[in-house]
Design a protein that fits this description.
Blueprint lengths: L3 E6 L9 H10 L9 E7 L6 E7 L8 H5 L5 E3 L6 E3 L9 H5 L6 E2 L5 E2 L16 H5 L5 E6 L1 H17 L1
Antiparallel strand pairs: 1-8, 2-3, 4-5, 6-7
Length: 167
């Protein structure tokens, strides 16, 4: 079974500093109002025991990406070598079907109306030799980058879905 690239998030290590978000935005020159990686604050519990935790979220490059299936123009594809999900913004019509299909609500739409999202910096860095800037920047190592098998990746996807549904 081939392994695929992924960035895993450990909520226990995250301080909510937004360093990963800033690194992504700066490195990729992401426009104002768009976040390819975002840090959300999740609240849980009931008064008087209310707590919060930070969640660093970007494209999971899913085993079976719903965005690929939902795209009517074929603008989104999953690369066979490493499993990185890419979008061709020249083919995207901005219909937002991918956003509706994504269980993580990751797709973003900028001023040109086309979909954009994390691509693991696949065309910017050598993924076999270096982690993307968001991972390298994290001071607490709350983000981990590497390759894992499909079973583990599917488990990570499911865990994140459950976390988002609970909050």
């Amino acid at each position: 079974m081939p392994e695929e690239y992924i960035i895993l998030f450990n909520a226990n290590k995250c301080t909510g500093c937004h360093g990963c978000e800033a690194a992504c935005k700066s490195w990729r020159n992401v426009e104002l109002g768009v976040a390819w990686r975002r840090v959300d604050n999740l609240w849980y519990g009931r008064y008087p025991c209310v707590k919060s935790a930070s969640l660093s979220l970007a494209c999971m490059h899913c085993i079976e990406p719903a965005c690929v299936t939902a795209c009517p123009t074929g603008a989104i594809e999953k690369r066979p070598d490493g499993g990185v999900v890419m979008v061709d913004r020249d083919v995207c019509t901005g219909c937002q079907s991918c956003l509706e299909a994504c269980p993580f609500r990751v797709p973003q739409f900028g001023t040109d109306g086309t979909m954009q999202k994390c691509d693991l910096c696949a065309d910017e860095v050598d993924l076999t030799a270096s982690a993307p800037p968001c991972v390298v920047t994290c001071p607490t190592k709350a983000l981990w980058y590497g390759k894992i098998n499909a079973k583990k990746k599917s488990g990570a996807e499911q865990s994140l879905k459950e976390l988002l549904e609970a909050h």
